[in-house]
Amino acid sequence: MEYLVFIGAIVAVFIILKILAWPLKKIVKVLINIAIGGLLLLLVNYIGSYFNFSIAINWISALTVGILGIPGLIILIILQFII
Q1: Would the pTM of this model clear 0.85, i.e. be above it?
Q2: What pLDDT sits at residue 29?
Q3: 43 near 76, Cβ under 8 Å?
Q4: Can you tell me the distance from the alpha carbon of 54 to that of 20, in angstroms, rounded to the nearest whole number?
């Protein structure tokens, strides 16, 4: 009888970890995308330094490029020219 409780507890922990692992994967993916967005902004600033062009690197711009990707970077470049 004690073995059934032990097995039930292991199964319950496994199910809870599976449920919690899905959102954690999404969070990690967003953080990786934000890091890649920051690296793209650094690259644009490095190349843009030859043309007196730069984009501020902060969490909003990195998040924009991280979520939207290349179109987000293009939007930031256009906004920099407008403002």
Answers
A1: no
A2: 84
A3: no
A4: 40
